[in-house]
Amino acid sequence: MVISRHRLPHPYRLGLTGLWLLPIGVLLLALLLGNGLSPALLDPRLLLAFGLMAIPALYIWHEGIDILPHGLVTRIHWPRYHAYDTLDNWYYDGRAGRRVLTIWGQGGRKVLECRAGHLTDFPSLLAALKANLRYRNWPT
């Protein structure tokens, strides 16, 4: 069960997705106006180019962090599940110029680093971390 989803609000994600897909629409419209409906629009090279152009839109759409009862699912680059018992500690740098959350796993490696402004329900994420992980007073 997902307790809370953290990602850009829906209107912003929709706007960014539309912005990334706009060049595909403009190019497709130009091809249709110039040549009309033709079999060349099904050329694999053109479809591959459209697919590559759509990758950022898909990335923006799925990016986020889910808080689960026993861990976090981070979908920043690749979806990864991090159980709370595999995480070591966390630190939130709340200074005006920073506002960065960092979470470390076992062995001292960084698991997640993100800005508070990029998450819609940041206080819920902090509450889950406070309840399940040790707080580091200052990063080393």
Describe the fold and architecture.
The chain is α+β, with helices and mostly antiparallel strands. It has two domains: 55 residues; 72 residues, PH-domain like (Roll). It has three helices and eight strands. It has a four-stranded antiparallel β-sheet with strand order 1-2-3-4, covered by helices on one side. Strand 6 and strand 7 form a beta hairpin. Helix 1 packs antiparallel against helix 2. The protein is elongated and about 65 Å long. The model has no long low-confidence stretch (mean pLDDT 86).
For the biggest sheet, the summary is:
4 strands, antiparallel
> What is the total tally of β strands?
8
Number of separate structural domains: 2
pLDDT < 50 stretches: none
Judged by helices, strands and strand pairing, the structural class is alpha+beta
Beta fraction: 25-35%
Q: Count of helical segments? A: 3
Strand order of the largest sheet: 1-2-3-4
Short description:
This protein is α+β, with helices and mostly antiparallel strands. The chain contains three helices and eight strands; from the N terminus they run βααββββββαβ.
Topology (SSEs and partners):
Layout: E1 4-6, H1 10-35, H2 44-62, E2 64-68, E3 71-75, E4 79-83, E5 87-93, E6 100-105, E7 110-115, H3 122-132, E8 134-135
Parallel strand pairs: 5-8
Antiparallel strand pairs: 1-2, 2-3, 3-4, 5-6, 6-7
Helix pairs in contact: 1-2
